[in-house]
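Appendix B. Extra example for self-study. Work through it before the problem class; the solution is given directly after the inputs so you can check yourself.
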Amino acid sequence: MDEQQMIMLTNQKIVARFEGILFAAGDSVKTADLAQAVAIEEGMAQKILEQMAQEYQKVSHGIRLVQTEKSWQLSTKPELYPFIEKIVSINQHGGLSRAALETLSIIAYRQPVTRVDIENLRGVSSSSSIKNLLDRGLIVEAGRKDAPGRPFYYETTAAFLKSAHLKSLNELPDFENFYSKASQKDPESIEGEEGLPS
Amino acid sequence: MAYTVHTECFEGPLDLLLHLIQKNEIDICEIAIAQITGEYLRTIRHWQHLNLDIASEFIVMASRLLQIKSRSLLPKREDEDGELSEDDLVQQLKAYQAFKNASQRLEQVMERESGGIYKDPEYLPLCQKEKIVQIDPLALQHYFERMLSKYEQDHTFRDPPQPIERESYSVEDQIQVIREALINSGKVISFSQTLKNHRRSEIVVTFQALLELYKANLICLEQEDVFGDIVISRRTAVSG
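Solution. Structure tokens for the complete assembly:
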């Protein structure tokens, strides 16, 4: 067995350990913790986890590995939902209202923002949308603005990143895209990097 | 009889303006806004006609549009304050449209993602490893002996049969007991010495009495270690 094969084998063992840990935890696990558990460096762990995530993307896998900021979590592939639903009944959140979605996208791109900032952009009262988003844990109050009335700042959460399938806020599509008319008529054109059917 | 009529739902005046601009297939610009002012007002009147509640924001926007239109009819002045110029509205509309597009994209992604199922954190039964505790055998012996002597004191077998009397102690009486004991013994006395029967009620009430005396600044208390005996001494008049 040459050196190359040795490394391959070690990596495969680490992959198995990571998979085991992530399955047992259920919850998301930090890259650093995973690295520590198998006694390798974090950078190495990150590389292996990225390879795993890619491997899971193959059609023959029903599980995917999702990175949110510096944590990893197993999840089923969204397109399998119709089949899973037949066996496991899941109480899914209803979708968000258009008002809530508008508010959420303003917070996502302009954070931290106050309620007044949001209402100036939308031209309508947005407090109920904000409350709805707070209740769902998609946004949080993040300090107060040093201005009359000391209004709250709002920010998106890790739960938002997860539900929008983003590793970090840097992955938000470039906002300039949305100024062009093309994006509005054909939103699919800027999607599809993940290659998942919508 | 009034009927509830569902018209197209608009998120606000900006949404309605965008709709009208798109319907007329014009770009967002000053001329567009002037063009659709009439249509905007007609829509609002139509809603009023249908007995719909109209949010105040729509009315505010109507007056803003009228202001813009009336200003556009007048010759331009140099010293215009430009508080609500059409340019602002154009910018606002463009920004709003961009966010609306962004929110549509967000909706698609979130809807798709809602099919992905994450497990809750797994709650495995506790199987914590036992930890080694360091115990000094001499200390163990010491505490065991102390416990035995206490037990003997408290439970010395009294001649049976014996009537069980209900004993009652009062804080006032016990204060007197402690005071007398202090006077008799000279300066210092331990808490256990003030007890006669070592009954629970006696211990509790005597302890209360002790606290009362301490509160009144009449005694000093000392305890060398936890659960050790309490040493009572009279507070000297000098320091008080």
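Self-check: Chain B has seven helices and three strands. If your reasoning did not lead you there, revisit section 3.
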